[in-house]
Amino acid sequence: MASLSAVSEELAEIDGQISDIFRALSNGFQKLEKIKDSNRRSRQLEELTEKMRECKRLIKEFDREVKDLDYKNDPDTNKMLNEKKQSLIKELNSYVALKKQYASNLENKRVDLFEGPGEGFTEDNVLLASNMTNQQLMDNGNHMMDETDQAIDRAKKVVHETIDVGTETAAALKSQTEQMSRIVNELDSIHFSIKKASQLVKEIGRQVATDRCIMALLFLIVVGVIAIIIVKIVNPNNKDIRDIPGLAPPAPTRKLLWSSSCGRL
C-alpha cells in the first residue's frame, strides 16, 4: 500500500500536523486528570478545545486534498486515503467525547467551547457509515441527492448561458468576417487604382521627356537661325552663308542683249 508521502507531500505534511495535535491532546487529557483546581481545569480544557479546532480544520484540508487527487489515484489508493480520513475523524471524535465528559464534570458547567453547531465532524455529515442508522443513511442520501439536483440545475444554467454567449460570439465573428471581407475588397480596389495611377504617371513622364527633347531641338534650331542672321548682318560678304536660302545677297542686275543693241543704234 502506498504511503501518504508517495501520494502527495501536502497530504503527508497535513497528516504529520494532525498526529502532533493528537499527541498533544493525549498528553493534555492525561495532565487534565491530575489537575484538581476547577479554574485550571477549565483553562486546560480551553487549550485542548483550541487544539481540537485546529485538528478539525486540518482534517477538512486533508479531505479537500483527497478529493482533488481522486481522479489521479487508482481505486486502492483512494480507498486507503478515505480509510485514513475516517480514522482521523474517529480519533478526533473520541477526544471530543472525552472533552464533553470532562466539561460535564466541572462544577461551573461552561457553554460548549466549539463555535457553531457540532463538534468534531458529528454535524458535518461525515459520520462513519457504520455509526449511522438506516434512517440517517436515507436522510443523508436524500440530502446528497437534493444537493446533486441543485448542482445539476446550476450546471444546466451555466450551459445555457455558455450557449447564449457562444451564439453571440459566433454572430459577432460572422459580422467581423464580413467586415474584413469588405475591407479586403476595398484594399484590392485601392491597389488596382494605385497601379493604374503609376502606369499613367510613367506615360506622362515619357511624354514630358519627349516634349522636352522636341523643345530643346526647336530651341537649338532657333538659336542657330538667330546666330546666322547676326553673322550675316555683321559680315554680309561672308561666302559661307551665301547659299543659305533667304540669306544670300541679291544677284546683280543684268541687262538684256536687245536693250544694249538698241543703245548702240
Automatic annotation (TrEMBL):
Gene3D superfamilies: 1.20.5.110. Signal peptide: none annotated. Its main location: membrane. It is found in: Membrane. It is a single-pass type IV membrane protein. Keywords: Membrane, Protein transport, Transmembrane, Transmembrane helix, Transport. This is t-SNARE coiled-coil homology domain-containing protein. It comes from Penstemon davidsonii.
